[in-house]
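User: Reviewer 2 asked us to show a designed sequence for the structure in our supplementary figure. I'm pasting the structure tokens here. Could you produce the per-position amino acids so we can include them in the response letter?
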């Protein structure tokens, strides 16, 4: 499927570039006079049509129009004011005009001006001002110059639309419909594999099913990305009629997040089971669990075909089996059985998720709130810095490019303009792959010109296989989108144009100018973002640990603390940490220590597990708070005892995580040993009672293994839970409520054990970082 989509994208890219080439190379003279910048037409086509659908192409047309208005209207006004006088056209005024126009274009927020529109506008700005300075014949018809730039852009847009319609339109509607079905099938398969794993007789067979389910989770993330990309394009194709609403996909839908969270919880529970087969799982439980999974899978599949969001009900015998199965849970399990009960709790959450109620207004509310805040946040420091960074980069690239070669000076700024990226990126790696792609494409074009010097048409036709190859190259990890696009542009600027001089001389000039532009981009990035990605990753790690402390302290049955709010904050910070880690792994170390990516990936894995576990724990806490408040007045006394057990646990874990946070805030990890001693991390604890003797910090690093610590601490919590539930729910008519409370308390106990385990993993990872920076400490 991926190779077919890649080849289809390559075909449409080649077709769009062929339309531009035939028009500019073999079109009538009046058209060629208007379309004076075929390179801009090619750039527009490549930017819009890459992996696009018809709806996204139409949106690209609108963005191209917005970009043209942003760039040409101010240029026409300035040209009209100054006139063709040569004294107003100099290197200084050209650089100033480019820098100022770039600053104005980049300043608006992304939700106000799309990134593609900014890239197109920046490319047009470079052509508008630099060409007006370089070419005297352009200054003779100065007011026609912006119109020629707009016409060249329009040709690229028209070529994209025609290429997208032939041989048949690639609709975003069909892509969303197909991939949404794949997504629902993916979720159903994961559930079936996890149900199969719990029933296996051998652990290696269970682990095989779990591994398969995790591979499907990776596929799910790719499907989600595809659906998110095509969602905006779908709105440009057809109006929101009834048949369209059935496939309206909202990636921010809370139900989708809840489903994925609970399935991950089931995976975690299965990997925590020590031995198979599960002793507590009898035939009746298997039958009930099978009915539960079938019901959830049926509901997920029917959602795809449910046009009006009607309620979906399961057969009566399925509901009866599910109810009887869950009501059979009438006791708090032992520590060894907690993973199985957590698995059941996640399954019950899936049962309770409402698939019928679609959250259609979430995205609109978010868009409206974002829209109202755009202008308020417009002049914030990060946005100004980003605009100044782009402005200075383009201005410096134009200046140095013109100093090296006045005739080809704008080629230094064009690559920087059309590949503009807000925020941080792996600058050195991106510059490297852009340079490599440019060299590959330029050399390929020069060789084709040398071989087919006398055959212009054949020379152009050899551009098609190169476009196909580079479109495939964009999907590779080695070059990616930036490298593949640079390779396309390098060949197009030689094979797709005429009257640009000897190809070999232009190829050398183009490579040098590109190198000048990329060098300017790297220098400005270092000037405005001097912090290395590894430093940012370390800072973000400390933020994650601080938020984790907040989440742990929110584990409470008595207080009104909001665990869901801190969970959402932690999720966002983990995503930011992942971005920094990816960038840090790609940046060169120079004279610094190499980035320990493996250790940071371990930390991210532990934080992700804790994030997912705490979210499931929030479901259990929410139900328990509601249920205990429905009981008699005596609940306060019993719940206070249970709250005390949870409080001791929170004190133990959060105290240690706080120390980790303080350590990661240091400039060097080399002070870890002193900090550990100062904060008495390994102080003596009363493991039997789950209480510390001094500061409430549990002795995870004592002679006892983690299993012994968890057994004692969680065992105390479970015994307290048994006592509380037995006294609160002793009546015969409360079996269903009792089973729910037992299940929730058991799930909460499993969450506590995972917190203990992953805190140990975090400690080991941080100690590994210390050893990495201070190898002599380990001697």
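Assistant: Here is a per-position design you can include in the supplement:
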């Amino acid at each position: 499927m991926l190779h077919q989509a890649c080849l289809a994208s390559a075909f449409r890219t080649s077709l769009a570039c062929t339309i531009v080439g035939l028009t500019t190379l073999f079109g009538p003279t009046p058209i060629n006079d208007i379309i004076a910048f075929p390179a801009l037409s090619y750039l527009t086509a490549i930017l819009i049509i890459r992996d696009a659908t018809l709806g996204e192409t139409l949106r690209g047309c609108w963005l191209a129009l917005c970009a043209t208005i942003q760039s040409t209207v101010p240029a026409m006004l300035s040209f009209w004011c100054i006139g063709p006088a040569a004294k107003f056209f100099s290197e200084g005024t050209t650089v100033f005009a480019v820098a100022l126009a770039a600053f104005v274009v980049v300043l608006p927020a992304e939700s106000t001006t799309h990134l593609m529109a900014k890239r197109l506008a920046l490319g047009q700005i470079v052509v508008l001002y630099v060409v007006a300075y370089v070419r005297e014949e352009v200054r003779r018809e100065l007011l026609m110059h912006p119109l020629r730039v707009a016409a060249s852009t329009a040709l690229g847009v028209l070529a994209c639309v025609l290429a997208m319609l032939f041989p048949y339109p690639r609709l975003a509607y069909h892509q969303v419909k197909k991939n949404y079905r794949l997504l629902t099938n993916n979720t159903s398969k994961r559930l079936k594999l996890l149900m199969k794993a719990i029933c296996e007789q051998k652990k290696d067979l269970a682990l095989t099913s779990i591994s398969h389910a995790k591979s499907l989770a990776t596929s799910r993330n790719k499907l989600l990305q595809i659906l998110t990309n095509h969602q905006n394009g779908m709105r440009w194709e057809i109006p929101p009629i009834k048949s369209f609403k059935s496939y309206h996909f909202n990636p921010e839908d809370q139900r989708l997040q809840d489903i994925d969270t609970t399935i991950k919880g089931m995976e975690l529970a299965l990997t925590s089971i020590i031995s198979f087969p599960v002793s507590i799982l009898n035939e009746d439980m298997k039958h009930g669990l099978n009915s539960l999974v079938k019901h959830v899978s049926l509901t997920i599949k029917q959602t795809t075909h449910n046009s009006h969001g009607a309620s979906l009900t399961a057969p009566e015998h399925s509901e009866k089996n599910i109810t009887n199965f869950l009501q059979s849970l009438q006791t708090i399990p032992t520590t060894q059985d907690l993973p199985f009960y957590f698995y059941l709790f996640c399954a019950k959450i899936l049962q309770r998720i409402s698939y019928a109620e679609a959250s259609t207004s979430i995205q609109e509310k978010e868009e409206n709130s974002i829209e109202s805040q755009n202008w308020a946040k417009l002049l914030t420091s990060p946005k100004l810095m980003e605009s100044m960074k782009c402005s200075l980069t383009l201005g410096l690239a134009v200046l140095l490019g013109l100093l090296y070669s006045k005739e080809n000076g704008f080629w230094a700024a064009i690559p920087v303009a059309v590949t503009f990226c807000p925020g941080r990126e792996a600058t050195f790696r991106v510059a490297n792959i852009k340079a490599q792609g440019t060299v590959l494409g330029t050399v390929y074009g020069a060789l084709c010109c040398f071989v087919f010097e006398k055959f212009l048409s054949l020379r152009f036709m050899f551009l098609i296989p190169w476009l196909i190859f580079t479109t495939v190259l964009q999907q590779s990890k080695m070059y990616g989108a930036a490298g593949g696009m640079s390779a396309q542009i390098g060949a197009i600027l030689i094979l797709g144009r005429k009257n640009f001089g000897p190809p070999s001389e232009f190829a050398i000039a183009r490579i040098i100018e590109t190198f000048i532009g990329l060098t300017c981009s790297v220098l400005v990035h270092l000037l405005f973002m001097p912090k290395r990605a590894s430093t940012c990753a370390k800072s973000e790690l400390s933020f994650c640990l601080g938020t984790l402390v907040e989440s742990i302290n929110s584990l409470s049955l008595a207080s009104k603390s909001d665990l869901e709010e801190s969970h959402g904050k932690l999720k966002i910070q983990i995503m930011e940490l992942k971005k920094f880690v990816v960038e840090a792994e790609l940046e060169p170390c120079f004279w610094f220590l190499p980035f320990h990516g493996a250790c940071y990936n371990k930390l991210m894995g532990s934080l992700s597990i804790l994030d997912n576990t705490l979210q499931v724990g929030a479901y259990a806490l929410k139900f328990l708070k509601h249920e205990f408040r429905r009981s008699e007045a005596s609940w306060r006394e019993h719940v206070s005892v249970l709250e005390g057990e949870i409080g001791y646990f929170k004190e133990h874990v959060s105290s240690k995580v706080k120390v980790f946070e303080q350590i990661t805030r240091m400039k060097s990890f080399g002070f870890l040993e002193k900090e550990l001693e100062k904060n008495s991390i390994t102080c003596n604890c009363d493991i039997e009672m789950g209480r510390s003797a001094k500061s409430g910090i549990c002795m995870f690093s004592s002679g006892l293994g983690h299993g012994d610590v968890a057994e004692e601490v969680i065992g105390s919590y479970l015994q307290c839970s048994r006592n509380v539930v037995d006294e609160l729910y002793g009546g015969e008519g409360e079996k269903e409520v009792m089973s729910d409370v037992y299940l929730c308390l058991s799930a909460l106990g499993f969450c506590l054990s995972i917190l203990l385990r992953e805190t140990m993993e975090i400690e080991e990872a941080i100690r590994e970082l210390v050893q990495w920076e201070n190898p002599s400490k380990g001697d």
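For the response letter, you might also mention the following. Residues 735-773 form the longest helix (39 residues). The chain has three domains: 2-170+382-528, 172-236+254-355, 533-778.
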